[in-house]
Amino acid sequence: MIRNFLHIITILLVAVAAVCSCKQQDKPVVAPAENLEAKKMLAGIWVDADEESVVFKISGDTIYYPDPTANPVEFKIVKDTMVLQGNSVSKYPIIKMAAHLLEFKNQGGDIIKLVKSDNPVDAYQFKRHDQVPLNQGKVVKTDTVVSYNDNRYHSYVQVNPTTYKVYRTSYNSEGMETENIYYDNIVHVSVYRGAAKVFSKDFRKDDFAETVPANMLKQCVLSDIKLIEASDDGLHYRAQLAIPDSPSSFMAELIISYDGKTKVRVFEM
User: Fold this and answer.
1) Phi-psi category of 134—alpha, beta or left, where left has phi over 0 and alpha has psi -120 to 50?
2) Which residue(s) pair with 243 in the sheet?
3) Phi-psi category of 260—alpha, beta or left, where left has phi over 0 and alpha has psi -120 to 50?
4) Which of 145, 184, 228, 229 is 20 to 30 A from 175 via CA?
């Protein structure tokens, strides 16, 4: 009888401990408070103290860059750190901060010294913030006719601009991470044998994910798909995926068979 009683007490104690543990785990994690006074004090245009070049403008909770292709980014001052919250989060430890002075460490660990501008001409560098699509919003069409094994194939390719944003991360002269915005394309490919449709599809850059490293693919724009040749296994196309404003690009080979099946592989020169 006593043994059963002790067993019941043990079970109750374990249950109470579990409930207390759950309550402790349910406590919300309190994020560090943002320094709103510091953010307000930093409002204005900041220039490099040595080069005297405009670096950025702070207005409200946003940082703007003079480069019209660089995406404005939200920022916070948390303790002694400037936190930029764009497509990715970047943090810059603050060394000194005053109404007209800002010193911080960039991504490479270098100390950047900025002073607040008192030149009204500097404001003109921020008048241009219209984002210009890489493809200029133009539709590009290509029609090609090839013959193979006594059959004529009509290849139709159309590059269609989209509003899908592509973010390319780069660094300005102060070593700060910036994001440039470009716009991706969708490329439509159709193949006809005479009047019969063999194939028709809209291609996006994700269709070529097996040929481009994942960390590069998100920065690529599907520039074009071009017919190269016809062979026993079908029509061969070269798909170009380029990183904007960079010499880096990736080529993928798209093969469309004569019965409408596709294969994608790395393009070999």
Assistant:
1) alpha
2) none
3) left
4) 184
Distance CA 167, CA 129 (A): 16
| CA–CA gap between residue 45 and residue 156 (Å, rounded) | 50
* C-alpha pair distances (Å), 53 with each of 26, 48, 170: 50, 5, 18
Neighbours of 231 (CB within 10 A): 10
Handedness of CA 45, 55, 82, 214 (dihedral sign): positive
Identify the bridge partners of residue 59 per DSSP, sorted by sequence position: 62
Return the number of other C-beta atoms located less than 10 Å from residue 43's C-beta: 12
* Contact call for residues 244 and 180 (beta carbons, < 8 A): yes
Contact 141, 133 (CB under 8 A): no
